[in-house]
Specification:
The chain is built from 27 helices and 22 strands. The chain is an alpha/beta fold. It has five domains: 2-96, Histidine-containing Protein, Chain: A (2-Layer Sandwich); 98-143 and 266-352, Glucose Oxidase, domain 1 (3-Layer(bba) Sandwich); 144-263, PtsI, HPr-binding domain (Enzyme I, Chain A, domain 2, Orthogonal Bundle), CATH 1.10.274; 410-552, Phosphoenolpyruvate-binding domains (TIM Barrel, Alpha-Beta Barrel); 571-694, Phosphoenolpyruvate-binding domains (TIM Barrel, Alpha-Beta Barrel), CATH 3.20.20.60. The strands form four sheets. Strands 5-14-13-7-10-11-12-6 form an eight-stranded mixed beta sheet. It has an eight-stranded parallel beta barrel with strand order 15-16-17-18-19-20-21-22, surrounded by five helices. A four-stranded antiparallel beta sheet has the order 1-4-2-3. The protein is globular, with a radius of gyration of 28 Å. Bound molecules: phosphoenolpyruvate and magnesium ion (MG). Residues 513, 553, 574, 576-577 line the site of magnesium ion (MG). Residues 513, 553, 574, 576-577 line the site of magnesium ion.
């Protein structure tokens, strides 16, 4: 073992930036390398290859540290580190590291602190080149599996054979990544990668790549160009969900090109935070566990696949951090970045005070989550016993198990349009029936499963249905409005729901989105009865009634709430769309993210009037938009008189815990003050006064 003792002269001690320079340098040696704070010993030696460990050593200006190395290259390591520390780890004495804040939109919860890693979205070969130019030690490479090198080598096989076999390798890699997610019980997210595996061997994409290669392009460039052309077509459709698919196709093209070039997947050499304009979802699944601490994007959206996958793997993500790429230096600078995926906070080069705050916030949140999980077996209620029904939002019957495990008392929103996605034709009545029946049987006769008729249109376009292009899809033919041009689509769904309930022996629950007039509500009842008559005429088992609800997400429906309530068994407020329509802010537009806050008093006053309308007719009100899953939102909603909250299974613990910490009277008081406010920030601060207490 070799060691050296040095006095630290950096103005702020070993704060994030110099600590990152140290761990990057240490990571370049094979020896074990440690650091002791000789001046104020703080427990066991810090691992000099771990940022958190070095920061925890609490080294301040003037402290003496001992750096030691143990292993085959210990002498070289100590020489190099002595020089680096003596030089102030790249900092001039006056540099105090004032952080730069680049706030974004929260997309996956959690706090992460680590060095910047700039992955090259176009493929590993480029990353290695950039790294060499920068002299960064920060990029490593994971060898491609499945004999990719053989595919990449331009040997005897012609361009067509090489393209096709590289595509097959890409498909099998993506299937393997999907299997990894399935093992983590994330089959819903695995479907994203399975769909990419299908894209890799899509005949149209492959034929185009082969055609381009025959025209003289090299096979890797041809594969990339073919994917790019398809991606552009998707992105040109100008809708958020399809734009996300465009990124998936590009990702597949880059993977095939990488395999053809015989390059590996770029990964950071030390645990890092990826900083990019956008990121391929498969990259998140592919970086070995522990190396990707977080993701921050200047673009993207919380509904992008990269965010969904990261959420399922517990990796914090912030998106739409405008100006990020200009303000965060390249990774060679050794700069540290801190992100909070729950608030959207992003700090480039955070100072010691910020780091201390974030670390203690992380500890407090872990404790909060632990306490919340402990309440899981109990029904949701306020401290003084006011009951609230907690339901889950699901996209497929496969989500039912996770919802039940999270303590859901049923399903408040089954987004059936997902059954229509990632396929080439609509699901048949029998296929739909099987899906609804599985969900109904999973929850049994006493826990409702509210099936929403396909909310197609707006941000959820289904290309094979051949619906006409519209200049303003969010103000166009969407959801119940499809009944006019595509009546059979909704009738098929309703017959499938009646039949599924007949076989599952449960009372079916249905609701329609985008209801905006009394005629829409009457139309839903008419369709329901027409579908029932067909099932009865066929002699199939059919229940007597279907509990029928209306989604309130359009301002006109909110205004008509007293009249609509007399035509329905329940209301379910869709706060995502209600916010978009009340504030006139496209929900998919990242530059309007600040306006998309459902806690805005204008939205809350609308909700209060809907509750009053429902009360007049004696029907219950649920909320199934994202606001219901936000603990602060849940408190305000219950205070406003909402009876049921429906959210993603992962949010149910947080809502239950927030409710358990307050009384009904406190919630009424909170709601009254929220209604009197004039901006969302004030409402959030009022709610934090209650949530922060528990
Ligand atoms: C909503 O608008 O709040 C809602 C729940 O529906 P979706 O998000 O599917 O449009
Ligand atoms: Mg909606």
């Amino acid at each position: 073992m070799k060691s050296v003792e040095i006095q630290i002269r950096n103005e702020s001690g070993l704060h994030a930036r110099p600590a990152a320079v140290l761990i990057r340098a240490a990571a370049g040696f094979r020896s074990r390398i440690g650091l002791d704070n000789v001046t104020t010993p703080a427990g066991p030696a810090a691992d000099a290859k771990s940022l958190v460990s070095v920061l925890a050593a609490g080294v301040e200006k003037g402290h003496r540290v001992r750096i030691w190395a143990d292993g085959e290259d210990e002498a070289e390591a100590i020489d190099a580190l002595r020089e680096l520390l003596g030089d102030g780890l790249g900092e001039r004495p006056a540099e105090t590291g004032a952080p730069i804040a680049v706030p974004g939109v929260p997309a996956a919860p959690g706090i992460a602190v680590g060095p910047i890693w700039r992955p090259d979205v176009d493929g590993a070969a480029g990353v290695v080149g950039v790294a060499e130019a920068d002299g960064a030690a920060g990029v490593g490479e994971v060898a491609e599996a499945d004999g990719a090198a053989g595919v990449g080598a331009p040997g005897a096989a012609g361009p067509e054979a090489r393209i096709r076999s590289a595509a097959a390798v890409a498909a099998s890699q993506l299937d393997a990544l999907a299997a990894r997610l399935c093992e983590l019980d994330r089959s819903g997210e695995a479907e994203i990668l399975e769909a990419q595996a299908l894209m890799a061997v899509d005949p149209a994409l492959l034929d185009e790549a082969v055609r381009l290669a025959a025209g003289g392009l090299d096979p890797a460039a041809a594969s990339r160009a073919s994917a790019e052309a398809s991606a552009r077509t998707l992105a040109g459709l100008d809708d958020e969900l399809l734009a996300a698919r465009a990124a998936d196709v590009r990702d597949v093209g880059a993977r095939v090109a990488r395999i053809l070039a015989g390059a590996g997947v770029a990964v950071p050499a030390v645990p890092s935070i990826a900083v990019a304009a956008d990121l391929a979802p498969s990259l998140v699944a592919e970086v070995p566990p522990g190396l990707l601490l977080g993701v921050v994007l200047s673009g993207g959206s919380p509904t992008a696949h990269v965010a969904i996958l990261a959420r399922s793997l517990g990796i914090p993500v912030v998106v739409a951090a405008a100006g990020l790429l200009d303000r965060a230096p390249g990774e060679a600078a050794g700069t540290v970045i801190a992100i909070d995926g729950e608030t959207g906070e992003v700090l480039v080069d955070p100072g010691p005070a910020d780091l201390r705050r974030l670390v203690s916030l992380r500890t407090a949140r872990a404790e909060r989550d632990r306490r919340a999980a402990a309440l899981r077996g109990r029904p949701a209620a306020t401290r003084d016993g006011h009951r609230v029904t907690l339901l889950a939002n699901i996209r497929s019957p496969e989500d039912a198990a996770r919802a039940i495990a999270a303590g859901a008392e049923g399903v408040g929103l089954f987004r059936t349009e997902y059954l229509f996605m990632r396929r080439h034709s609509a699901p048949t009545e029998a296929e739909q029936m099987a899906a609804y029946r599985r969900a109904m049987e999973a929850f049994g006769p006493d826990r409702p499963v509210v099936i929403r008729l396909a909310d197609i249109g707006g941000d959820k376009q289904i290309p094979y249905l051949g619906l006409p292009d519209e200049p303003n899809p969010f103000l166009g033919v969407r959801a119940i409005r499809l009944a006019h041009g595509s009546r059979e689509l909704l009738l098929t769904q309703l017959r499938a729901i009646w039949r599924a309930a007949g076989l599952a022996r449960v009372t079916p629950h249905v609701m329609a989105a985008m209801v905006s007039t009394i005629a829409d509500a009457r139309l839903l009842v008419e369709l329901r009865e027409e579908a029932r008559a067909a099932v009865v005429a066929a002699g199939d088992p059919c229940p007597d009634r279907m509990v029928t609800g209306l989604m309130i997400e359009v301002p006109s429906a909110a205004i008509l709430a007293p009249e609509l309530a007399r035509l329905a068994d329940f209301f379910s407020i869709g706060t995502n769309d209600l916010t978009q329509y009340v504030l006139a802010a496209d929900r998919g537009n990242p530059s309007l993210a600040r306006l998309q806050d459902a806690l805005h008093p204008a939205v809350l006053r609308t909700i209060a009037s809907v509750v009053a309308g429902a009360d007049g007719a004696g029907i219950p009100v649920a909320v199934c938009g994202e606001l219901a899953g936000d603990p602060a939102g849940a408190l305000v909603l219950v205070g406003l008189g909402v009876n049921e909250l429906s959210a993603d299974a992962a949010s149910l613990d947080g809502i239950r815990a927030a409710l358990a910490g307050v009384t009904a009277a406190e919630l009424h008081e909170l709601a009254a003050r929220a209604l009197a406010a004039t901006d969302a920030e004030t409402v959030r601060a009022l709610a934090a006064g209650l949530t922060g207490r528990g």
